[in-house]
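The authors assume throughout that readers already know how a fold can be written as discrete tokens. A single example would do more here than another paragraph of explanation. An entry of this sort, consisting of the sequence and the corresponding backbone structure tokens, reads as follows:
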Amino acid sequence: MNNKQIKTSSKSTQTYSRRIRWGRVISYAILIAFALVYIGPILMLVNTAFNTLPQFMVNPTAPVKELAFQNFIDAWEKLIFHNI
């Protein structure tokens, strides 16, 4: 029998430099800006819904200090669901 040597080849590690695709970066920046513009009013709506009326009259854009679920209870009671 012949003894054969098995050669193992080690792959040389190469570093690849990636090009920055500025078109993609700009398009993602624009998409993020539009998302923030779209989400802003929704967050304002949720913030206003949990404010009490006196808190809203003082500063409508202030963050909620205490969640007021009474607004939702009042709205539910004022709607007439039993006639539908």
Q: What stands out?
A: The chain has three helices and no strands. Residues 22-49 form the longest helix (28 residues). The chain has a mean pLDDT of 83.
